[in-house]
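Notebook, student rotation project (T.W.).
Task set for the rotation: take a protein with a known small-molecule partner, predict the structure of the complex, and write up what can be learned from the model alone. Partner molecule chosen: zinc ion. Sequence and SMILES entered below by T.W., checked by me.
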Amino acid sequence: MTAGDTSTSTETTPPDEAFAALSDETRLRAIQTVAATAQPTFTELYEASDAETTAGFAYHLRQLTDRYLRKDPETERYELTAAGRAVARALDAGTFTERVDREPTAVDSDCPVCETPALLARVDDNTVSVACRACETELLSLPFPPSGLRGRDTETVLSAFDSYHRRRTETAADGVCPDCAAEATGRIVFEETPDLPGSEPRPVVESACERCDFRLRVPVSLTVRDHPAVVSLSADHDAGLLDRPIWNLGPEWQETVLSEDPPAVAVSVTVEGERVRLLVGDGPAVVDVERSTVEPADDANNAVGDVDSSLDTEEALDTEEALDTEEALDTDDALDTEEAPDVTEAHDLDASAEAGS
Ligand SMILES: [Zn+2]
Ligand SMILES: [Zn+2]
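Predicted structure of the complex:
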């Protein structure tokens, strides 16, 4: 125990003992009844149970009391402890008891990589994935609780999936485990993608908890989508970048690997001829930010006064690609990396992600 913990007291029960108390249908149902009822009495709980005698039911309740349930000494009514609420949530969510699979369904959205309307969403063992059937890029693949899938159509599932993982990704990027609240750290790893076109490894941020088995792998871009520089770029151009779903940030985003060791990835976002470029390292930490105007190289001779309309998204992206290699090296110098990166490849936002938790 460190000095900062002197006012903390911790009580630990062996896991087998804690879980043994739950290994009975009558007890699990009692927890669910307490969760669904406002402070039930013993009689109310007994009547909702399948126990044959009050003595037998009282025995089961005693196994739960203090750890999962507590009885108010004055009113003699029952309520859940924090651990009891966690059990009730897992039971209701089907976390331990349900496996959901769902055939691929079309998503009403263009692929950010090949820009064809060919995205499909599927569910495989409680994991939601969005992939493009035209360019075969997997955009995102993350676990999702069965309760988020039950009775919902694909559109509603994806909307809930977006909201759920948006917060979890932000929490993990802040260094806090979204499952147990202990410290989480992220590092950039390079994922081999033998099944996908282009064989270069793709950078993803892998967050891991020091305490529990929380793991999350998401595209680097996703961890900086709410960076103030991106927020203000989006606001200045009314681009709505933050309204995009996490599985499709849009064609404005591009990732460039500057160095694999130490890992450094430049994430650039280009909107209407303006670009924000974030240099991201392990953490994930943004170590450098730059906002600049993208010169429309191919349109240098266009009539003055028509600059804005000459800068459509596609041209802006072409220009950005042309600039990437050169500037990647400049930024790399700024990063104090002694050796020139041997890999300087443009990556579209096609890093897949996966997690186990
Ligand atoms: Zn595609
Ligand atoms: Zn954790």
